[in-house]
């Protein structure tokens, strides 16, 4: 099983969730108002009020054979809108 972690602007959440569905993944988890710091600086809760928007963390678990269709769907969106994605192996407890 693969785990895909995405960090992106909440404003771009709808097209990303549609891409996950179109890739054939059966589900995902969304955590809104994610804060932190990365190469482009800090993101805080205050950014939502400034008009810049807060971030969301999306977690997807999928079968290995769905990873390439998922990547193909997500890469153009992350490239256009911004955001990052990481893939790791996962196994049930």
Integer count of domains: 1
CATH top level class name = Alpha Beta
| Estimated share of beta-strand residues | 35-45%
The value of Rg in angstroms is 13 Å
Find the CATH topology: Alpha-Beta Plaits
Mean pLDDT: 88
What would you say this structure looks like, in words?
This protein has a single domain, classed as Alpha-Beta Plaits, CATH 3.30.70. The model has no long low-confidence stretch (mean pLDDT about 90). Helix content is about 30%, strand content about 35%. It is of the alpha+beta class and about 90 residues long. The protein is globular and about 35 Å long. A 4-stranded antiparallel β-sheet has the order 2-5-1-6, with helices on one face. Strands 3-4 form a two-stranded antiparallel ribbon.
Topology:
Elements: E1 2-9, H1 13-22, E2 29-34, E3 36-38, E4 41-43, H2 46-50, E5 55-62, H3 67-81, E6 84-89
Helix pairs in contact: 1-3
């Amino acid at each position: 099983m693969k785990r895909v972690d995405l960090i992106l602007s909440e404003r771009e959440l709808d097209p990303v969730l549609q891409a996950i569905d179109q890739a054939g993944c059966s589900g995902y988890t969304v955590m809104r108002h994610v804060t932190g710091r990365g190469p482009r600086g800090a993101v805080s809760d205050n950014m939502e009020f400034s008009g810049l928007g807060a971030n969301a963390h999306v977690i997807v678990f999928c079968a290995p054979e769905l990873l390439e269709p998922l990547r193909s769907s997500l890469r153009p969106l992350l490239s256009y809108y911004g955001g990052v994605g990481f893939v790791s192996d996962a196994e049930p407890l």
